[in-house]
Amino acid sequence: MSSPGKLNSSSSELDLDRPNLEDYLPSGASIQQEPHGKLRLRDLLDISPTLTEAAGAIIDDSFTRCFKSNPPEPWNWNVYLFPLWCFGVVVRYFILFPARVLVLTIGWIIFLSSFIPVHFLLKGHDKLRKNLERCLVELICSFFVASWTGVVKYHGPRPSMRPKQVFVANHTSMIDFIILEQMTAFAVIMQKHPGWVGLLQSTILESVGCIWFNRSEAKDREIVAKKLRDHVLGVDNNPLLIFPEGTCVNNHYTVMFKKGAFELGCSVCPVAIKYNKIFVDAFWNSKKQSFTMHLLQLMTSWAVVCDVWYLEPQNIRPGESPIEFAERVRDIISTRAGLKKVPWDGYLKYSRPSPKHRERKQQSFAESMLRRLEEK
């Protein structure tokens, strides 16, 4: 249970470091007051357009910062450091990268030479086949982590196979799934991807019970919801992993959790993931970079360093709605990983609201600020 201090901290983070609106006012604009300290209505009306613009700037900035990659400060700025940086580039691209490609290639050879016979020759032995396929998926994920020189610290008890439980985690990149999968063969719910990633989804990852959806298909929601309910009731099914943010966020913030994972009537096990950016930024901006290029970026870095915390399972409380339950779990994950909570729906990253809708929201924000000024 969160302490009052933590709740106050979380609510203050929702303010998004609220700026002083006076900074947005023109230099000539000032709010005059009556002798008794009350604001005049016409003065408030005079500045309402400026407040609307300020509201728009605040909203746009606080939303887009969740999906921005913040590059580290350059350190090769003088004649002494630049040769060291050049030496590092040579090591990373011409020594580490070929070695990592070799490791990954060997991993795929071992995996495919074992997975194909197991998948096709053990059709009549479902339990044995599932166990072997689960171990092989964990193995290939371990080779992927090794190809980035992954340094991953796991905290807490390893997840076990039990019915009526679901694991939820914050989401920075598709490698979150790989990092978690190398320890436990989760069945994940994930957006259907094109290309070679989609081929892996429809063949290899199907073997561990993964569930795919298409964000653009409205009918998929009902189908996926039924699959989720059926999966969590299965005794022999792999633990179910969900990224309730629905999109990759830059590991500084958490956006709103979708309520689907929190209305299944089962225990919710939070998983917090925090990457250390000292060697590479693991955030994947899928709108600007393909997953192939993202993997190349990781394989040409020094290392991928992160911590993973398996936290105490949570259950919905009497009188608590699924949305409130989701927010409580998000607060637990954010606190453990040191992430800031923001009140935005991650799907806005893919479908930004229309200009008219944004204008209405900005106007409503400005009017609320005016009312607060009137009350002072």
From TrEMBL:
The chain crosses the membrane at residues 77-95, 101-122, 134-154. Residues 351-376 are annotated as: Disordered. It is found in: Membrane. The keyword Acyltransferase applies. One of its GO terms (molecular function) is glycerol-3-phosphate O-acyltransferase activity. Residues 165-276 form the Phospholipid/glycerol acyltransferase domain. Belongs to the 1-acyl-sn-glycerol-3-phosphate acyltransferase family. GO terms for biological process: phospholipid biosynthetic process; triglyceride biosynthetic process. Keywords: Acyltransferase, Lipid biosynthesis, Lipid metabolism, Membrane, Phospholipid biosynthesis, Phospholipid metabolism, Transferase, Transmembrane, Transmembrane helix. PANTHER family: GLYCEROL-3-PHOSPHATE ACYLTRANSFERASE 4, ISOFORM D-RELATED (PTHR23063:SF2), PHOSPHOLIPID ACYLTRANSFERASE (PTHR23063). GO terms for cellular component: endoplasmic reticulum; membrane. It comes from Prunus yedoensis var. nudiflora. InterPro entries: LPCAT1-like (IPR045252), Plipid/glycerol_acylTrfase (IPR002123). This is Glycerol-3-phosphate acyltransferase 3. Pathway: Lipid metabolism. The lineage of its organism: Eukaryota, Viridiplantae, Streptophyta, Embryophyta, Tracheophyta. The keyword Membrane applies. Pfam families: Acyltransferase.
